[in-house]
């Protein structure tokens, strides 16, 4: 990241783009990127981290407030053990190499997902990153790691059930706000825009509750090839979308 001091995106370009408040990204296609070049899948993941670093920089420069990236899903455990271990190590390496820069650039990091099945040392690392950046007021970078939307809603349901069983909450008092407050994403706005790379057109258990009114843009590039021109192209598509939220008139986000 070359973001200190902050470089702003070209002002005219920014003026004609609608900037999402919360951008979600399903970073897909690292394996295919590698295969197409006769490389190991793990090399694709390494390039994927570079692309993530670039996206963080772009998000800061274009004024996005919240960025959530899907980096390991609860379903990814079915991959070969070595690849799972490699992705876990990538998280550790990303934190080791980028934490100071993220702090300097006022980025707050949140890591959402289930802690079940994670090694205690990884849980400590996650807690440490969150604690060290908690007072930062710039971009909120949310890393969905060991995350699944169904598991998140199930966990939220369990938390609410505990409150009801203890007599602290009445079933008739449960509202959408109660559920939202029990999700991992509590306190974050819903994503306005979700991008998925690599040509796949699925949600794959990403932010299921939160994506109720998100716009989706699917791009053909594999994640390591997603660059500033892809990013601007997506924002241009998003800027032309007519968001009605179930109503009849276009809304601005
Ligand atoms: C999707 O490509 C990518 C993943 C499941 C792993 C994503 C990890 C990164 C981009 C690195 C970010 C990292 C961290 C941990 C901070 P794929 O393997 O599904 O590709 P394929 O569909 O072509 O096989």
Automatic annotation (TrEMBL):
Cofactor(s) for this UniProt protein: Mg(2+)
Amino-acid positions noted as binding Mg(2+) in the UniProt annotation, renumbered to this chain: 28, 215
Superkingdom of origin: Bacteria
Single GO biological process annotation from the record: polyprenol biosynthetic process
GO CC annotation: cytosol
PROSITE patterns linked: UPP_SYNTHASE (PS01066)
EC number from the UniProt entry: 2.5.1.-
Residues that, per the record, bind substrate: 29-33, 41, 45, 73-75, 77, 79, 196, 202-204
Cofactor note: Binds 2 magnesium ions per subunit.
Signal peptide, first to last residue: none
Record-linked Pfam families: Prenyltransf (PF01255)
Keywords for this protein: Magnesium, Metal-binding, Transferase
Gene Ontology terms for molecular function: ditrans,polycis-undecaprenyl-diphosphate synthase [(2E,6E)-farnesyl-diphosphate specific] activity; magnesium ion binding
InterPro entries in the cross-refs: UPP_synth-like, UPP_synth-like_CS, UPP_synth-like_sf
Function: Catalyzes the condensation of isopentenyl diphosphate (IPP) with allylic pyrophosphates generating different type of terpenoids.
Family named by the database record: Belongs to the UPP synthase family.
Record protein name field: Isoprenyl transferase
